[in-house]
Design goal:
Order of helices and strands: HHHHHHHHHHH
Mean pLDDT: 92
Strand content: under 5%
Shape: globular
Amino acid sequence: MPTFFIGSKMKVERSDIMIEYLGVILIYFTLIYLLGLKLKNNGIVDIFWGLGFIVTTSWLILMHGINNIAVNFIYPIILIWGLRLSIRIYLRNRNKPEDFRYANWREEWGIYVNLRSFFQIYMLQGFVMFILMIPIYFIVVSKSTVNISIMLLGLAVWLLGFDFEVIGDYQLDYFKRDKNNKGKIMDYGLWKYTRHPNYFGEATMWWGIFIISYAATENVYGIISPMLITYLLLYVSGVPMLEKRYEGNKEFEEYKKHTNKFIPWFRKK
């Protein structure tokens, strides 16, 4: 376990740790890329997304120990979230063809699909994971005294987000199991208050992790993590892609008029 000293040596050692965990992420996604090549299915990257955080966090703790009480809280929540997400995606995608997003890119990229997949799917997701992991990294390497009140606030925010994601997913799955709902829009439960309760929950969890990180370190730089995931979900890969699929659907257009896109709120009349 490394010893950190005040001054430049501490900065160098912490930089070395950051480079190490970046290396772990790159190796992890390279192995998944090779598996995707073998299976001819880049959609497997979604299954391994949650597990990647577990692998990286486990590696950080294994190599650098438990330096503060916040580690005892952050590891179980990463474990619970990561396992649930990966198992859910595996069960949803098993025995199905490649997800439509990756299938479309495979067709668009033609003979360059393998090269572009490596950088634009696997390495890009690895880079995003590296940024999202920053507050977790701060927690693991910190030897500061943890502000318990702020940490409990962070845990409460994370739990709120986790509840939105889990309950939202469950309600949607239950809705889809009913064959009478095929082609219909889910608009009750949490979906009555936000069009994307699972995405809202995902972003909220990362805000909770940042607050826990701040409680353990008083380092505000970890805020880049929840800011990035919130931006990606709202403007890049989450909400826009899903809503584009229902563009022009009369029921969905009516749903949009009455229900907030992201932050939960009462229905508009």
